Amino acid sequence: MYYKAQYISPLGDILLASDESSIIGLWTQQQKYIDHTMPKEMIENENIPILKEAIGWLDAYFAGKKPKVSDLPLAPIGGQFKQQVWRILTKIPYGELRTYGSIAEEVARAMGKERMSAQAVGGAVGHNPISIIIPCHRVVGKNGSLTGYAGGLDKKIKLLEHEGVDMTGLFVPKYLGK
Asked: What pTM does this model have?
C-alpha cells in the first residue's frame, strides 16, 4: 500500500509518496518520467508519520536550513544500477556540485568496471523518483552545462541558487532554448 501527501513549496506543488515506513517518491508538477516512477495507486493520507517527517524536512530545507538526506528513510524504486547512482547522489553535500562524468567514474569503480557512460548515469539521475531529497539537481555537465533535471531547468536553477551555489561558469545550453 502506498500513501501520498501534497506539499506547497516555493517551486510549486510537490507530491510526496510513502510505503508507510519510507519515502518512495517526491515529484514536482509536470516532472518528466513521473509516469515511470510513481506508483499507480496511492491513498491520500497526510497523517502517515513518515510523510509528516518528509514535510518537516522540506520545511527546513526551504527555510534555508541544511537537513541531511540521512534524516529520512528512503526507498526509491529502481534497478541495481539506478540504486547505485542514487546512493552516490545522496552523498553530494548541500550547496556543492558533481559532474555526470565524476559519478560515472565512481559507479565504474564500485561495479569493478574500467569505464561507465556519463550518459547512462544521466539517465539514472533523470529517473530519480525522490527529487530534491536525493539531490539530482546538484549534478551538472563537466563544462558547467545545466542539463538533465527532470523537474525543469528553471527549478534546478532555483534549487542551486537557494543552496547558495556559485553560478559563475554554469549555463543553460543553447539547444535547450535559453
From this structure: 0.93
